[in-house]
Design brief:
Blueprint: H1 7-32, H2 47-54, E1 62-64, H3 70-75, H4 80-87, H5 121-134, E2 141-146, H6 153-164, E3 169-175, E4 178-179, E5 182-183, H7 184-187, E6 204-208, H8 212-228, E7 233-238, H9 256-263, H10 267-277, H11 283-306, E8 332-333, E9 340-341, H12 350-363, H13 374-377, H14 392-395, E10 402-405, E11 408-411
Parallel strand pairs: 1-2, 2-3, 3-7, 6-7
Antiparallel strand pairs: 4-5, 8-9, 10-11
Length: about 425
């Protein structure tokens, strides 16, 4: 068990977790009042994972999550007012009311969004880390995703590239034991997800995601590895969500007793109790943290409620479409020195037309004889030998002869 930090740090950790818990509870209540549309995914119970991770990240680091990321944005410094307004679909929301609950995004604080596609954030995280590496930045990308995403094709592809290019990225699996409504032992052959990336050379560790200090310690070390050793790593954080997968989840896949058992490990109550017992914080400070959260969340609801809907004439802003207005490029044709609109081939520059026509003319030239099979004859352009050896039919009943293999002669009988 990690040692308690100083009183100021303990209070900040407790206050952030309390704020996220109260924000999520109120977001769920407002959803039931039909103040928010679409889906709503709450992270009640997972506060230690969120706060433990973000509390040791630098301002220049990137964070990218999934669709359960209200708390992640708040922990990175996004104003609760703008997060609640986004959930309400209002113009003052952090994404202009266009993203809603599942697509919180704050570029200024390098929170690169929530994504509705399971595992969809994984390759984007690799791209963010590659950009930092390419530009010589000291930033690390932290990619947080659920246990279900660890079994998607994107996971393997991203682990391979991260290891191959030694990207400065930390992959953090928020394992809450259920991929939507499917228990981990029913969707994953290997239930210890810390081993999932080892085949790609990425080491993994498993930690208690209900302990904010244990999360802090593990993330601190892996951020150091990414920054100083250029080594990607993976952490499996075992945590639990006390609410359903989404607000519409009837939760028929788990027993009430299981939820109650995990409530005994509540990350906020456990941390507050430990701080008080150690004399680092008093009951008064714990109460102040909870009261501050209540005031902040109440103000966020009032702000969101008073915010106007996005203006109707902004409906088509930030959209990509093949239209005359606003005139964005649907595709890019780079067959000429000057790239041009790919969707307007009739208006391509003269040089591009000449190159295209020359390529078409070359393709129509008939070659003499059959085109050789590279698998049998080797690749003439790469000067490689056959990968399969001679056709067996050529050797059957053939007289003894010398044939060259890799520059040496071998006799056949």
């Amino acid at each position: 068990m990690a040692d308690l930090p100083d009183a100021a740090t303990c209070y900040e950790l407790l206050a952030r977790m309390a704020l996220i818990r109260r924000f999520e509870e109120e977001a769920g209540r407002q959803y039931q009042r039909a103040k928010a549309g679409g889906f709503l995914h709450l992270a009640i119970g997972e506060e230690a994972t969120i706060v433990g991770t973000t509390s040791v990240m630098r301002e220049e680091d990137f964070l990218i999550g999934t669709y359960r990321t209200h708390g992640h944005a708040i922990a990175r410094g996004t104003e609760p007012n703008t997060v609640m307004a986004e959930i309400f679909g209002r113009g003052a929301g952090i994404s202009g009311g266009r993203g809603g609950s599942m697509h919180i995004f704050d570029r200024e604080r390098r929170f690169m969004g929530g994504y509705g596609i399971v595992g969809g954030n994984l390759p984007i995280a690799a791209g963010l880390a590659l950009a930092s590496q390419y530009k010589g930045e000291d930033a690390v990308t932290v990619c947080m995703f659920g246990d279900g995403a660890s079994n998607t094709g994107n996971f393997g592809e991203t682990m391979n590239l991260a290891a191959l290019w030694t990207l400065p990225v930390l992959f953090l699996v928020e394992n809450n034991l259920y991929g939507m409504g499917t228990a981990i032992e029913r969707h994953s052959a290997q239930t210890d997800l810390s081993h999932h990336a080892e085949g790609y050379g990425i080491p993994g560790t498993r930690i208690d995601g209900m302990d904010v200090l244990e999360v802090r310690a593990a993330v601190t070390e892996d951020l150091r590895s990414a920054r100083e050793e250029e080594r990607p790593t993976l952490i499996e954080v075992v945590t639990y969500r006390y609410r359903g997968h989404s607000a519409a989840d009837p939760e028929v896949y788990r027993e009430r007793e299981e939820v109650e058992q995990w409530r005994e490990k509540d990350p906020i109550e456990s941390f507050a109790r430990r701080c008080v017992e150690a004399g680092v914080l008093g009951e008064r400070e714990v109460g102040q943290a909870r009261e501050a959260a209540e005031v902040t969340v109440k103000a966020a609801v009032e702000f969101a409620d008073a915010s106007p809907e996005p203006a109707l004439d902004t409906m088509y802003e930030s959209l990509y479409a093949l239209t005359d207005y606003p005139g964005g490029w649907y595709a890019v044709d780079e067959r000429s020195p000057e790239p041009h609109r790919g969707e307007q081939e009739a208006d391509m520059p003269a040089r591009a037309r000449e190159l295209a026509e020359a390529g078409a003319a070359y393709a129509e030239i008939e070659e003499e004889g059959e085109r050789p099979n590279p698998a049998v004859a080797g690749d003439a352009q790469d000067h490689t030998a056959s990968r399969t050896g001679p056709d067996p039919a050529e050797l059957e009943g053939a007289p003894a002869r010398a044939r060259e293999i890799d520059g040496t002669e071998e006799r056949e009988s």
